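Hi everyone,

Forwarding the result from last night's run.
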Amino acid sequence: MGITSPQTAGAVSLWGDGYRNIFTDRKASQIGDILTILISETASTSTTKSSSNSKSGSQTLNAGTGIFGFLAAASASGSDEFKADGSATNTNRASGTVTVTVKEVMPNGNLIVEGTQSIWNNKNEHKITLEGMVRPEDISYRNTIPSSKVADATLKFDGKGPLNAKQRQGILTQIFNILF
């Protein structure tokens, strides 16, 4: 029998490789961490336009004398006026939450996040996709951040299913819109 040397025991954590202080908030900071975005967006546009234009002219022709005696006195005048007023107002609001995943940590510590949330209701899918960049210091102790603090944000609302299909234009209408 050979002599075997004693082996050393190693400790392995049940909580993963990363060290986190139990006294600090659990905020997203590394690739794969999750973060909840509180969506509260309002976009409002208002346009008012006014145009006006007017012109007038007057011509007078005196009666002819001498060989032009056959010409009678005449006058002509004209005027043209144009006025147009218009206004348009548009307001869009979006609210909700979507949980995203940290996809990349930038050299300056900012986090690139991306996530999609799908909600199915009566065979209709409502999908919210959010991408953007967040600063770790803007993340609250609850691991949430308002959408107004997401830089380069792209927020998409999409859907599919019977209800969404009915809200689209028919194929003939789409063709006529392209042609005309």
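Residues 64 and 147 are 82 Å apart (CA to CA).

Cheers,
N.
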